[in-house]
Amino acid sequence: MQKEITTSGALQKLPTQIVASSDEMRELLGVVRAVAPTLITVLLTGESGTGKEVFARLIHDWSGRTSGPFVTVNCGAIPEGLIESELFGHEKGSFTGATAERKGFFEAAKGGTIFLDEIGEMPLSAQVKLLRILETGKFTRVGSTTERSSDARVIAATNRDLELEVRAGKFRADLYYRLRAVMLRLPPLRNRREDIPFLIDSILHDLVARHSLPHLPHLESEAIEELTSYEWRGNIRELRNTLEQLSVMAFSPATSSQGVITSNDVRSILHRHSEAEFGYHNVALSPIAHPQPQQSELGLIYRALVELRNDISELKERLQPSTNHIPLSLPPGSINHNGINNELNLSKHEEEMIHRALQRFEGDRRLAADALGISERSLYRKLKEFEEEKK
Ligand SMILES: Nc1ncnc2c1ncn2[C@@H]1O[C@H](COP(=O)(O)OP(=O)(O)OP(=O)(O)O)[C@@H](O)[C@H]1O
Ligand SMILES: [Mg+2]
Description:
single chain; 391 residues; Arc Repressor Mutant, subunit A; two-stranded antiparallel ribbon; globular; disordered N terminus; binds magnesium ion
């Protein structure tokens, strides 16, 4: 379903889940509309959770090149030594471990879009090759002298200040100037508060479907005010997570909320966020300087309920016979396909934990790595290892 809104006089069709009603966002959409059908490189900047990936997909969707794929590359997650081969491909035997020739992401994105996320993390050596492909459309696979062409449209994103990175000698100035031919800055949510009520509405509709809630939760007007005036350092992602916790809570049999979310509920959740972010001693910065004991208790109940709900949906998933379902954890003593007892197999457990974390965070490697307490690069390396083992 598409929602229509008018931007700079032109009719825009937006996917329903994208909200952009503030003047600032409408202006951005106007630029997106104009640049999307061209092959111009676009650099998206903005704090974490402001919608850079959402906009990258929108540019692809409006590019007229949707028969080609949208390929996302998280430059921060690829080990430095592998990034060139991942991007541009390699020939068989070009380095230890290159047992077969391999196409890179640029070749995979043929006819479509390559989205270079966290471009600020790209090592200097790969930046040279990237500049070349942007300027000439040409590249060579690692270990090859044959020149190849790429018609992939490049979109890059970063939440770092690339100008500072350039000054610090970590990012090439020529690449930066090439990338920022069109630079779109996604404003932080606190600078476009008029979008918040619309976002709340859109996100709640989505959550009702996702969690099979009986109906839309009802937010009291003071609750909406609380949400609208909050700082949202984590931007739309944090707003979404907050609404998810509130909705689950509102329909929990453990409370008598019956789908109603009050300003107290909101304050209690946001207070917990501030505590987690700033530590208890800085709680004075949060809207409630001195939490009531019952509010902290409520916070604990919230957390327990959200976790319980996640566990229940996980259990449900496990019980449903499904061919594409990854078993998340094997019961002790279970036997794998080779008849080998898995209970003491550490790497198997590690793999399961990783799949579990990825599933919980819907494939977001950064969040999964955080939850597992490892770096994103380590997570990536481990996934590669599991892939290799399966070959
Ligand atoms: N305009 C929007 N309308 C509705 N939801 C949005 C919008 N922009 C982003 N979101 C939602 O906010 C969340 C974060 O968006 P996204 O992943 O695009 O942010 P990001 O800027 O790429 O963050 P990061 O820098 O952490 O990677 C997602 O759940 C996304 O669906
Ligand atoms: Mg992102």
